[in-house]
Structure formats: C-alpha cells, structure tokens
C-alpha cells in the first residue's frame, strides 16, 4: 500500500511501514527494534508516533540540536564531505550518479560503525549534562 505514496502527511508513516516490512524480511527472528530519529516535525507528528506505537518499536530519546547523536550527521555526512572536496558537477544526473555510486560502494561495516558508536556519543552528552559536545 505505501510503497509509492508521496503525500507529505503519509510519507513518514509509509517509510516506517516499508522499513518494518524490510526488517521482517531480513531478520524475521528478531522482533525488538530500537529506533532513533531526530525531533523533526514529521518525526514527532501524531501519525508518526501512532505508527511507532503500532509497530511496538522502542523510540530512543534524541536531545534537541545534537548533531553528534545523529549517525547521518557525524558519520555519513562527514565521510561524504571528505570525498566531495574539490568535486565539480555540471548536471543533476552527475550528482545523482556520483551519490548512488558512493553509497553503494560503502561496505555494510561502514554503516554499522556509525550506529555502534552511538552509546559512546550518548555517554558524552550525559557527561556534558545534555549540552552540545564537540
């Protein structure tokens, strides 16, 4: 049902359902999901929170304005920014091709390393009394 929905109201809910379906396919024995996302408006919307409750996922708390807790910010985008230095693109197609090739070239361990470093990052936030840590 949700695979091709692009309405803003339903997009986040559909993405969660698609993710749940994919997780069920690749890890059918594992039921426990711990889910981390930031406090963006679409992530805290009523429909999104209801979907997370329906899925039974544990939603991990995310401190506001904490890019050090977002794997995309501290891990993925930092690595991407390094490979983008001095790159020039002439068309949107060149950008899309580059990004697809780049993300497809990263080994699964790259993504796992970003996720696995979260407990240490959370501890730093605790040690800083919730303030932004560098």
UniProtKB/TrEMBL annotation:
The molecular function terms of the Gene Ontology recorded here are:
nucleic acid binding
* Leader sequence residues: none
For this protein, the record's InterPro entries field holds:
RNaseH_sf, Transposase-MT_Hybrid
Q: Which Gene3D superfamilies match?
A: Ribonuclease H-like superfamily/Ribonuclease H
Q: Which domain of life is it from?
A: Eukaryota
Question: PANTHER family from the xrefs?
Answer: MARINER MOS1 TRANSPOSASE-LIKE PROTEIN
Q: What name goes with this protein?
A: Transposase
